[in-house]
Sequence to fold (171 residues):
Amino acid sequence: MERYQLQSQASLSAMSEVIMMIPRFCSTMKWEDAPDSDYKVVTENCTYQLTEIAHVTVPRGFFTDLASVPPPFNNLYPANGKYAAAAVLHDFLCEYLSITIKGKPTSITRRMADDIFMDAMFQLGVNTSEVRVLYESVVTYRILCGKDKPSTTRAKRDLEAKWWKNNVLCT
Fold:
């Protein structure tokens, strides 16, 4: 566990000037089934405070699959487990590779996104063995698939745009 915490702190320290603070969710992550898809949609903005000057806000209307767990492992690690809010945060970070520092968007690496995912799981009280398995899974996926750029699909963006049109812009 210490190795993971140290690795994560090293990544956060590399972001710029970091004021010591325990990362935390500022509110409960809320979602519901998204229409016409297998996704969930975040129903309220949710901020994860990294430091006094750095945060990530997952916006209302963001589509997610919660935790992307291969079918053989669904019973051990259900998509909506205790780590689900951290998984949504990770999905958002992987799509945009950006956090906010001192009010300005700041690029991060996919590795930093993975480390923030790990920190968020600890903050949610996920046990160390589950954190280790889930963290190592996203790291292995990143390395084996060469994921280092923001990831999303046109189809997902179209679903999000349709949701915004029907639920925000026209209400």
